[in-house]
Amino acid sequence: MVDPKIVVKDLNIDYGGAPALKDMNFSVMDKEILGVIGPANSGKTSFLRALNRLNDLDLGCRMKGSILLNGKDINREMDAEEVRKKVTMVFALPIPLPMSIFDNIAYGPRRHGIKDKKKLEEIVEKSLRAGYLWDEVKDRLTSSAMKLSGGQQQRLCIARTLAVEPEVILYDEPCSGLDPISTAKVEDAIRELKSRYTQILVTNNVKQAARVGDKVAFFLMGELVEIGEANQLFTAPKDKRTNDYLTGRFG
Amino acid sequence: MKLKPQTKQKIAFALLGLAAVVVIIPVAVILIILIKRGLPAISWQFLTEMPRMGMRAGGIFPAIMGTLCLVAGAIGVALPLGVLTAIYLVEYAKKNWWTRMIEIAVVNLAGVPSVVYGLFGLGLFVIFFHFGSSIVAGALTLAIMELPVIITSSKEALMSVPRSFREASLALGVSKWETIRCVVLPNALPGILTGSILGVSRTAGETAPILFTVAAFYLPRLPQSIFDQCMALPYHLYVLSTQVPNVKPALQYGTALVLVGMVFSLNLVAIIVRAHIRSKKQW
Questions:
Q1: Looking at this predicted complex, what is its ipTM?
Q2: What is the CATH architecture assignment of B60-280?
Q3: From CA B233, how far away is CA B205, in angstroms rounded?
Q4: Which of A242, A248, B55, B110 is least enclosed, having the fewest CB within 10 Å?
């Protein structure tokens, strides 16, 4: 039996009011793609932000329970920078930093102490290739990342997270602002990365979770209703609420 | 009587335009008078020579140098202190009563009349710290006066950097300080610089704060150290206008023109710096 990459134990989160997450318990295996689906306000984003401790920035946020990464408690046995370097996040809207394409990718490695220009160039090319963007931008690495199209920007953000050599990548509805073709390219990138990374994809698009997820979790009102193999969950959900959501009765 | 919407719109535009023009008038009139009466007095000698004959002749060189020293000293102290305070308040401070106290203090500091700063400087720097009436005391007094402007404009500039930039950087495992240094500060810099230079240029023309702390009535030589007194343009202008009989008005207007010119060129520097950084900015 292999140890799971991420274990979530009795996770409760609230922002000073109603709980955002209630008694979550599950685990994610190494190099697995977990799709997380659920209607708005179901706690998907809170869950992601807990995984790389971005919730720390919200002063009102309170958390109980624990999250283990490789068996270590990310809140008690690791510091926030260490967690975020290993568990990086791609946000809903692409957020290129206001600098060139090259500097965007090199930003993380530089901050983590890599100064050598050759090494940086290598990392940038490798990351952009892995993010399915290299061919489109290789001739204009020095131009502003703000000038890329939305889909390109999102793949740039993926490449930027790859450059810090994480172990886990979190996606917070990464395709919500993208057209179908850009979406397909981002999904290709995610599938391509499966061989090396554990990935968690929060999405409002149920079909997207079916297309890329190995496993899928259904969140509702801060509760984990059901988690299972993608095939099983979409064809024969165990819980009635999952079925209702998938068939479009609500959400 | 019912007006058509288009007519109403025209009237509104006319009123707004009129208000804008009214604002320009005083500035224009002041400038025209200053240039008309002051320009004849301005010459190379006027700018580079010591005053002679009890300030009735000669130049205003020591006053120009004095004001430059004071401005440089004040900005050297106030800029780092103000920017660091702003970073603390925006990025690190928790929202508690202590932070609110600091913020209230800053706002109140901006409302203190300048002559009170002068007395404060006299009490603290000149007497308590034994700096005497000196450039240090004057520059520090001006610095304290600039602080609220610098802090407020820096805070605005820092807060205008989108939170998403910070999160994108933090999400890569970059530490908070590195995030501030590499993402937040570069993008806030134009705002910080413009606000600060505008604040400084305003204090360059202040008389009251330097009256008790540094300004010399008549000192026809350059200061030798930062613990010397010096002449300064605003105070020199005051002296010329009220304390010395039989001064040619051209000298007064000339001095005023030089002072206004200095303030304007500082503002111009602010504008150029901002434009330069904006042109490189990519969002």
A1: 0.86
A2: Orthogonal Bundle (1.10)
A3: 8
A4: A248
